[in-house]
Amino acid sequence: MKHFIIIALLVIASTLAIHAGLNSIGLLPVLASAQGVSIDQLFGIYMWAIAFVFSLIMVTMLYSLFVFRRKKGETGEGTHFEGNNNLEVAWTAIPLIAVLYLAFLGARSLSETRRIDPSAMVVKVVAEQWSWQFQYPDYLFSSKDLYLPVGKQIDLQMTSLDVIHSFYVPEFRLKQDILPGRSVDLRITPTRLGHYTLTCAQLCGAHHADMVANVVVVSQADFLAWTQKEIASAPKDPVLIGQQLASLYGCAVCHSVDGSKKVGPTWLHLYSSSVPLSDGTKVNADATYLTNSIKNPNLQIVAGFSPNVMPDTFAQALTDTQIQNLIAYIESLK
Ligand code: CUA
User: Fold this and answer.
1) Beta carbon of 204 within 6 Å of any ligand 1 atom
2) Confidence tier at 5 by pLDDT (50, 70, 90)
3) Which of 155, 147, 93, 94 is nearest to 121 (CA)?
């Protein structure tokens, strides 16, 4: 009995010391979202559990090694015993209850971070190798920086134009993978003004490490002022908007505007020309054909460009107005 009491006291002392040590390292950056509160609570519980389980095992092992070691002159065998039903029931039941309790806490935290506020502001996030773009449908413009008003739930509707990326701002705690050809939601309510950094958290190619963006949390008034400034400085000419979109969405990577052949057909002199297709027919490159080619690139494949390699994600990623702007840009190159 004396040994049990000493071990218990040592375990308590070691747990307190290890917990204090873990806390002093500062494992988490400052918390800046409402959804992070329950995650930090979970972290707090795990820190205690880690400190306790580590102490329990190490203290018991080291105590037994030193106190029950073979004394000088001892030559006999230790006492043999086999099986202990009470012990076995205890070490099955206690971890089972602990794991079920942690699962309950995890599920509760998950449902809290997913809570939907119907008045949330939508921001569309477009990820591609290797940049981020944020569209504000309520204000009809897009930005390279993610500006967010403090205290309002943001519904991030995210899509990727190529491979899997992942949205991660450590101060917001939540992380969400972004899949091509699909829109995934992440809800964040910023609670703290400041500048943060969005990093891509899914290895996505050579410049994965450079795939960062500024996140700026501002007051409601500053947010409105920023949107007015962005709207005022956004180009009004559809051709200019189309040109911006072509670079933003990577069209220019595969389609040249000087007649040279890249991955896809050039856009120079394309509009209202007669385009030979891979099935032997010809089609007039009017707005209808170009719209179809952007939305359903697999349907009409230009001769010499089969099999098609253009992603079919643009019908989702682009609005109809954006497609019209792109076509206005293509028309300006005719
Ligand atoms: Cu995108 Cu890593």
Assistant:
1) yes
2) very high
3) 155
